[in-house]
Design brief:
By secondary structure, the protein is an all-alpha fold. This is Cytochrome-c oxidase subunit VIIa. It is found in: Mitochondrion inner membrane. GO terms for molecular function: cytochrome-c oxidase activity.
């Protein structure tokens, strides 16, 4: 006869949930600070450059 493994599944469930939340949060921070903000800064610099060129052409 095979013994029930309910206690093991419950422990594994909480381990899986905590790892998923931890890895998801770490991945989110890595994306936000590693990729998103750098792209946003590049975009803002481009629009500032366009605005300066437009102001120089108008003056």
């Amino acid at each position: 006869m095979i013994a029930p493994i309910t206690g093991m599944l419950r422990k594994r469930f909480w381990l899986d949930i905590s790892c998923a939340i931890g890895l998801g949060t770490a991945s989110g921070y890595a994306y936000w600070y590693g990729i998103h903000l750098r792209d946003l800064e590049r975009q803002e610099n481009y629009y500032i450059k366009l605005e300066r060129e437009r102001a120089a052409a108008a003056a």
